Amino acid sequence: MNVLEEVKEMFLIADNHYLGAVNSYYANKKGLYYKYNPTNHILNFCELSGEIYLKGYLKRNNISYDNNHNLDAIIHKCITADSSFQNLIHDCSLLATFTSKIHYPNELVIRDDTMVKTIKTVEKIMQFPPVEKIRQELGIPSPIWKPQD
User: Fold this and answer.
1) Alpha helices in the chain (DSSP H)
2) For the segment 43-79, what is each residue's pLDDT rounded down to a tens digit?
3) Cβ–Cβ contacts within 10 Å for residue 5, how many?
4) For the chain, which ranges sit under pLDDT 70?
5) Cα separation of 51 and 46, whole Å?
6) What's residue 148's pLDDT?
7) Which candidate, 44, 45, 66, places its Cα nearest to that of 55?
8) CA-derived radius of gyration, the chain
C-alpha cells in the first residue's frame, strides 16, 4: 500500500469513528439503547477520530509519528510542519481528556453539551484546511451528517 492509499484508509477509519460517535449520540437521545449508556464510547470515538485525521496529515506529509494516543505530541508535530495547526491546540486538549479518563469511575462528569462539543471538535479538525485539502485530494466525501428529527 502506498502512502496515498494508506492515508485514504486512515481518513476512512477516522470517518467511521466520527460516524460511530454521531450515530450513538442520536440513538441515545432517542432512547434506542437498552441498559447501555454510550457516553464513554462517543467521547472515545471522537478522540480516536481526531487523532487519526491528524496522523493522516502527518503521514501524507511524510512526517513520522509515534504509534500511540498522545494527542499533545501529535498536534505539536502538526504545528511544527504548519503553524496554522496552532488553532487546534485547545481542541486537541479537549479530545485528549477522553483518551483514558472516561474509562474509570468518578473521573469525569459528562453532560450532553460536552458530547455535542466533542463531536463539533472532530468536525472542526476534519474541516481544517490542511486536513480538508487531503480529503479533497483523495476524493473522500465529507461524512458530516445531521439526522432528521
Assistant:
1) 3-29, 39-60, 71-81, 89-96, 112-127, 129-138
2) 899 999 999 999 999 999 999 999 988 999 999 999 9
3) 10
4) 99-109, 146-149
5) 8
6) 63
7) 66
8) 15
For residue 141, what are the contacts with CB-CB under 8 A and spacing of at least 6? none
Rounded to whole angstroms, how far apart are CA atoms 55 and 11? 9
Neighbours of 143 (CB within 10 A): 19
Amino acid letter for position 95 = L
* Among 45, 7, 8, CA closest to 25: 45
Integer angstrom CA distances of residue 36 from 24, 41, 47, 117, 126: 11, 11, 20, 22, 29
* Residue among 76, 48, 78 at smallest CA distance from 61: 78
Give me the pLDDT at residue 40, please: 81
pLDDT of residue 108: 60
Q: Which residue has the cell 485528549?
A: 96
Q: What is the pLDDT of residue 101?
A: 61
